[in-house]
Design brief:
There is one protein chain. With about 100 residues, this protein is mostly beta strands. The protein is built from one helix and seven strands; from the N terminus they run αβββββββ. The strands form two sheets. Strands 4-3-6-7 form a four-stranded antiparallel beta sheet. A three-stranded antiparallel beta sheet has the order 1-2-5, with helices on one face. A hairpin with a 4-residue loop joins strand 3 and strand 4. It is globular, with a radius of gyration of 14 Å. The N terminus is likely disordered.
């Protein structure tokens, strides 16, 4: 059986450009019974956090995006957490590289 979190992670469409990180949710497949994204953390290859001014949104949306600072070449990881309507945490991550 696939958990809600695993199913969400597989259905999640993520995009990255060198200036913006975007999370797109497939609400047409999964009912939007979630609270907004509660945490997004960007880390470099050494695990150091990269500040990009994240503030939790006040409402659920189908798309979330944040402008990133100029990044050095290297590997990065984006971790995010959202809460289900019953309060359980759902989290996932994805990586990208800057050349």
């Amino acid at each position: 059986m696939i958990s809600q979190v695993e199913g969400m992670a597989k259905a999640l469409n993520t995009e990255f450009s060198h200036k913006i990180v975007r999370l797109n949710f497939p609400w047409n497949l999964i009912p939007p019974k979630f609270t907004p994204i509660s945490k997004v953390v960007l880390k470099d290859s050494e695990g150091a956090k990269v500040d990009f001014g994240f503030e939790p949104p006040k409402e659920v949306a189908t798309d979330y995006s944040w402008t990133l600072p100029k990044l050095r070449p290297g590997s990065y990881n984006v971790e995010f957490i959202m809460l289900g309507s019953d309060g359980h945490k759902m989290k996932d991550s994805f990586g990208f590289m800057v050349h």
